[in-house]
Fold this protein.
Amino acid sequence: MEAMNFNFLCDEPPPPSGASVGIVGAGPSGLAAAGYLSCLGHAVEVYDKMPKPGGLMLFGIPGHRIPSARIEAGTLRMARRYGVVFHTHTKICCSAPLFEEEGDHFCTDVKGLGDMVKKHDAIMIATGSWRSRRLEVPGEELPGVCSGLEFLFPIRAARYCAPGVKAPDVAGKRVVVVGAGHSAVDVAHGAAALGAAGVDMLYRRTRAEAPCGSLEIERLEASGVRWHEGCAPTRVLGGDRAAGIEFRRRTPRGEEIETLPADVVVTAIGEVATPPFAKELGLESVRKGEVRWLNMTAIENVFVAGDALTGPSKIGKAVYSGLRAARSLGNWLELKAQNRQTEFSGDEFISREADRFPGGQFKDAPRVRGL
């Protein structure tokens, strides 16, 4: 199986530039940035709380969508051939308490952002989205209720033998999945594969509006999953643990209150980005494009990319964001080395950058050696 090529912008490792870059987060955005910057000859070190690089691309997406072997082979190639150093089991301390996000179980080392800033010439924050959205309905705190990320993450992570991490126990149980994105689909398939007695999916709109697409829904129905549309959950039923879910359903006669029995309720309605020190770094100003230098935060040598900046997105957009931010960081390092930062073009605002290469080639890509 072919390895993912994160260093696609150069055929061979370039000569060392003498600059050091630290990347916080080894998801698609961070790995794309690492590939770009190592092709510029920078010494790149990547820090991630998980035991393997890949982020949710590895630990949140089932292998039939993205084979884990391709990701692992690609990051191994980066390390061996391009000298990228991966610090796994390492979390850069942030404004949220430890163990509030998925994946913190793996963390055995915590480093301060201030120490990182001092160690490297530049920092890229690409921490992704590791906290799930909540339904905000009564009963959501009952045992038996979990988020899509909480359900999917252990399935991939259990093989790394982290304390307290094991595949969900749904064998013989009734499972209700709330949501209709690809994560919700993966949860439904996962529950069925783990031996659930029955799987129901609730979505507040119609199948034509479902983010996963009607084909995915048809596949689920063919596998025995029951689809319910126009349904908005109002509360989780149960005493000591979840026993069912109550919801409003739109019908030709108006809204009606209905219930479904459930031993397990999975709320797969999306994730929230949790970048470290978002306020102190001025990320809101970066999002609005109110910056002189593309993707640079309020700290001069700290940049941001991916979900940490934009919120949850698809892998392609995360990769694009990582490459764009890496190009900006590389330009900044180059001009800073010559004390020419003031020559940076004022046209490089984020609001204008999105249209510069929508799917085309990078205009400022590193040259391939020998060309």
About this structure: The two ends are 29 Å apart (CA to CA). Confidence is low (pLDDT under 50) at residues 346-371.
